[in-house]
């Protein structure tokens, strides 16, 4: 694709603006957005969607499905940042580092679904361990996570920047969060993890933690064995790092970047581990991941525009 044209549908939203920032000043592609008075006009969107080589959908799920219906040609390729197609047939999961052939599959795909922000942290920690046989597919995992409030888009930003915003709030207590199917499928699990998300009164950043009783796993791996599997899985991946264990981990650790940092903490004496991922919900959790997928699909420098 020579000098591809990229249309951002939803460019005025939280994720859309992040993507615009990352694409600003790039000379290897052209960026198309609609003016304020036409950005929700289906006719204007249809024209832009069909003219572009590649579109990035930064929309609520329903509007993302509508955009796909508006695409009437075989040429336009899509990166969807919404949660509408993460386990859908015909879609490639846009997490290049997750499987050995991940980037290759994304490069060849016409429809790529960006991962959710929480699943990005969870899957990065768990998928290599399932693949290596250290975590059995039916193991009942728990995921505790805290997101910055930009994770809820414009409406949550307005709420947390208004009066009486909480310092922290747990949610999804009915254990039916929309990210659970995505976590289950792409980790290769048969038992859905118990997902306990929460939101903190800070704009961006995310901590995703999987507590793991190593002594209860069939192979009883040491902390080092777990760390080695992760280090090998992400060897040569510039955005994903396996960092040393830490006793203090802040939600801001990777905020403002497109990095994803994994840590294997715990106590070999008790056989207990805390697997911890930090990322920016708007970085590797959304906008950074979309730009990374776009770069790979268009055959451009895979790190162009990313904040490493
Ligand atoms: N925020 C995050 O951390 C993450 C978000 N995502 C996903 O990315 C997508 C966008 O989220 P986010 O940016 O946070 O949400 P926002 O609410 O901040 O932005 C959504 C944008 O879409 C616009 N929009 C809504 N309906 C239409 C329509 N029919 N046609 C054109 N534009 C429309 C909205 O318009 P208006 O400005 O008028 O409201 C808004 O600008 C969602 O699917 C979300 O789940 C994924 C990972 C992380
Ligand atoms: C704090 C907060 O509310 N976060 C959102 C998830 C943000 C995100 O990952 O978006 P997708 O749903 O598109 O994956 C939530 O829990 O629904």
TrEMBL record:
Pathway the protein acts in: Amino-acid biosynthesis; L-arginine biosynthesis; N(2)-acetyl-L-ornithine from L-glutamate: step 3/4
Gene Ontology CC: cytoplasm
Statement: the UniProt record of this protein carries the keyword Oxidoreductase: yes
Reaction(s) this enzyme catalyzes, per UniProt: N-acetyl-L-glutamate 5-semialdehyde + phosphate + NADP(+) = N-acetyl-L-glutamyl 5-phosphate + NADPH + H(+)
Localization annotation: Cytoplasm
TM region positions: none
Active-site residues, Swiss-Prot/TrEMBL: 117
Keyword NADP carried by entry: yes
Name by which UniProt lists this protein: N-acetyl-gamma-glutamyl-phosphate reductase
Annotated organism of origin: Sphingomonas lenta
């Amino acid at each position: 694709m020579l000098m591809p044209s990229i249309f951002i549908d939803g460019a005025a939203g939280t994720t859309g603006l992040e993507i615009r920032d990352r694409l600003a000043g790039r000379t290897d592609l052209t960026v198309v957005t609609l003016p304020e008075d036409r950005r929700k006009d289906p006719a204007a969107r249809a024209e832009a969607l069909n003219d572009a080589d590649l579109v990035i959908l930064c929309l609520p799920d329903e509007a993302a499905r509508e955009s796909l219906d508006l695409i009437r040609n075989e040429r336009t390729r899509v990166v969807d940042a919404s949660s509408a197609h993460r386990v859908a047939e015909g879609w490639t999961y846009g997490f290049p580092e997750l499987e050995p052939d991940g980037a290759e599959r994304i490069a060849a795909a016409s429809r790529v679904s960006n991962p959710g922000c929480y699943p990005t942290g969870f899957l990065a920690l768990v998928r290599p361990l399932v693949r290596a046989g250290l975590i059995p597919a039916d193991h009942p995992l728990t995921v505790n996570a805290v997101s910055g409030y930009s994770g809820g888009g414009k409406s949550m930003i307005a709420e947390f920047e208004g009066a009486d915003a909480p310092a922290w709030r747990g949610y999804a207590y009915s254990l039916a969060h929309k990210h659970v199917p995505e976590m289950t499928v792409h980790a290769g699990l048969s038992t859905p993890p118990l997902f306990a998300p929460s939101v903190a009164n800070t704009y961006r950043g995310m901590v995703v933690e999987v507590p793991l009783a190593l002594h209860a796993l069939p192979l009883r791996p040491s902390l080092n064995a777990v760390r080695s599997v992760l280090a090998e899985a992400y060897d040569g991946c510039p955005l994903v790092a396996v960092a040393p264990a830490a006793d203090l981990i802040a939600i801001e650790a990777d905020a403002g970047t497109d990095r994803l940092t994994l840590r294997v903490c715990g106590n070999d004496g008790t056989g207990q581990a805390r697997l911890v991922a930090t990322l920016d919900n708007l970085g590797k959790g959304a906008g950074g991941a979309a730009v990374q997928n776009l770069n790979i699909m268009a055959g451009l420098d895979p790190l162009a525009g990313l904040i490493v």
